[in-house]
Every structure is written in C-alpha cells, then in structure tokens.
Fold this protein.
Amino acid sequence: MTETHFSAFQDVNQKITQAGEILKIKPGVISALTSCEREVVISIPLRRGNDVQVLTGYRVQHSSARGPRKGGIRFHQDVDLDEIRALASLMTWKTALVDLPFGGAKGGVAVDASTLSDIEKEEIIRRWTRSLVHVLGHHRDIPAPDMGTDARTMAWLMDEFHRLEGFQPACVTGKPIELFGAPGREEATGRGVAMIASETLKQHDVKVKGATVAIQGFGNVGRYAALVCHELGMKVIAISDVTGGIFDKKGIDITKIFDVPSLKDVESDNRIGSSEVLEIECNVLIPAALGGVINSENVSNINADFIVEGANQPITFEADKELRGQGVVIVPDILANSGGVMGSYFEWTQNIQEFSWPVEKFRRELDARMEKAFNNVLKVSRKHSVDMRTAAFVVSVDRVAHAFELRGSLV
Ligand code: NAD
C-alpha cells in the first residue's frame, strides 16, 4: 500500500477541514482554526562536561477561543515544530470535545530524556520557563507533563515561575500531591483510557470481564491504563515499553509489575518486541507510547477488534482508512486520552479555589464526564453516519468555531 505522507500538523488540519465541510463552516474560519495563534522557539544552552550543547525548545499556542491555552511539555529527541503544532491543535479539539474552559497549546524540547541527569533536566525546564514566562500563567497558558517529563519536572517549573511572577500554583498542572497536585491526576489519563475501553466493549455487546487487551507503552498512560483495565476485569495479555515486552495469554497480573521501572526487569518466558505487541490478537489494542506506530508497514498485521488511542496520533492517515475498512472500531485520541486534561482541569480549579477534593470525588467526576463525552461522540457519529474520529472533530470544531465567531476578535 502506498502511504499518503501528511505531516502530523497536516494530518490534524485535514480532519478539521473535513469536520468543517460537514458543519458547513466558512472557509475563512477554517483557515483560522488550522493556524496557530502564537509559536515561540527558544534555544537552551546546556552545560555538558567542559562544553555546551544547544537544545531547541518550543511553545505553540494554537487557540484561546474557549479559554486559557492548555497542553503538556514533551522531552523527546524527535520533537520538532510540526509535531508541536499538531499536538497543540489536538489540545484545542480535546478540551472542546470534553467541554473544558480551555484552548490548546503544546511545548517541548528536542532532547533524549533518557540521557539526562536530574540536574540537567531541572536546568532545562527552568531555562524553558524563564524564556517563556511572558506567555505562561494560570489565565494565559498552563503546561502539564507529557512524554519524558513528570510531576517532578512540573514542580521545578512551578518553582521557577513563582520566583519570577509570585505564588500561582495553578500556573502548571500534573504537580506532585505535596506541592498543590491533585490526588487522582497522575492516574487520570490511563484511567480514562481504560474507562473508554470498557464503554466501547459494552456498546458492542462484548463482555468486559475477560476481554483481552494489548498495550504498547508502560509509562504514565500505559501503566495506569493496564492497572485499571485489570481492575475492571479485562485480561491484559501483552504489554511493552521501549525495552521490549511480555506476553501471557492467561493474563498478566498488573498489580505485581506495576512498580517496576521498566519491563526489562520483569521475568517472563514469553518476551516479545516493543512493536510486536501491536500485532497480538486481542479484543482491545491500546497504543500508549509514540505517534505513527500503526502505519502502512504493519497495518495488515493488526489483529484487534477495537483500538483505543492512549497515545496522540498513533495511527497514520492511510492505516486508519484501511483499519476502518476492515471494520476495526477506533476510539480517537482526543476522546480516549482526554482524561489527562480533564484531571488537569480538576487540579487547576482546586488550586484557584485553594480547596482540595478527595480522590473519590476526582474519580467520580472523571468517570462521569468521560462517559458523557463518549456517548455524545457516539450519538453524533450515528447522526452523521461517520466514524468516531470524524464525529469527535465535528463536536469540537463546532464548539470552537462558534466561540471564535461569538468573540468577534477579528482585526
Ligand atoms: P511516558 O514518557 O511516561 O511513557 C512513554 C512510554 O512509552 C514508556 O514506557 C516508554 O518506554 C514507551 N516507549 C517509548 N518508545 C517506545 C517504543 N518504540 N516501543 C514501545 N514503547 C515505547 O509518556 P506518557 O505520558 O505515558 O505518554 C504516552 C503517550 O500518551 C504520548 O503520546 C502522550 O502524548 C500521550 N498522552 C499523555 C498524557 C499524560 O497525561 N501523560 C495525556 C494525553 C496523552
């Protein structure tokens, strides 16, 4: 099969355009929605031995039509402007889809996080924050963790922001619980992915208990998705990370491996490769690591009935078309992994109110809102006879276009 090569940003934009056509939105408004409001590129000189290595950092703000921009920061060697634009845009559609009062943004640094010491990581995030402080803030743009960054990184970001601008814990989400983080936020993305997997099975009359699941990624998203799938009675039969993976058709006891730093530390008679997990026969496949992992090379080997996108953009345009043609049901990233930004919203509101929720309330709110968003996408997909990804974009593009026009902030 020949692959149509869209860049990551073009890929998102063609989905916005398609939704715009269904909704009969004016072409000028679609051009605004397929552009980013602001893009800042910085250089970060990092001391390395006796020399200096200059890293490139980014913050792209896609839209503020529905509220302050919101989106994570990624430390990964493949980060570039196109990818950050695509991810910033996806945040706009994700926050609109689950009806949060936010716009979309994304940040990143092109660096292999696995090669960094803690001190280097801290220096990079502090420099990133100093260079971008003028565009950040709890009512302007609120970062959060993404690949290669975590709660600790967010604590350093918050501390640097406070030194420059004064106390404002809502300037960043995904913080440690001891430092204004919200109990429940760390697990929120993976929990949401698992809840959506369970709703998808129910909608298609497949029993949740005993349904088989394969997961790529054992970081924040994959680990909690695996744990909650396990708690809901599903059988996680395969899981992998960058070091490789494990397979057990009787089901892996996730509670036993949850705390291992990496899957290479798990003893197993059935080791599989990092990508092999994608080709395992199962009910639900959850890609929860990198983008573009299901593509023209491996699409014909995919053996799942349902794919729930934990990662952002894990399926290329052509592979998506082919899978849908084969009857595979795909729950798109902007719905499936929206539990993360929803959890960030709960943390942000608690920080602003200086009031903390018990974790049970956090989980209840998250589960109810995820279910509501899922049912709404299903309803719209039936109304327009389109797949769930198109339906999700129809819902969110409608909301953002409406807000954009109501604001009337045209020059
Ligand atoms: P993370 O850095 O915590 O974990 C990434 C995982 O992917 C690790 O287990 C790593 O070993 C694995 N991995 C990397 N390369 C791999 C490869 N080639 N094969 C198999 N596994 C590989 O990142 P995360 O926060 O879990 O994010 C994962 C994905 O989910 C990203 O696409 C991210 O944008 C998306 N996402 C994250 C959140 C969040 O709240 N963390 C929210 C929404 C979406």
Q: What stands out?
A: The radius of gyration is 20 Å. The pocket of nicotinamide-adenine-dinucleotide is lined by residues 145-148, 189, 216-222, 240-242, 274, 288-290, 310-312, 337, 340 (CB under 6 Å).
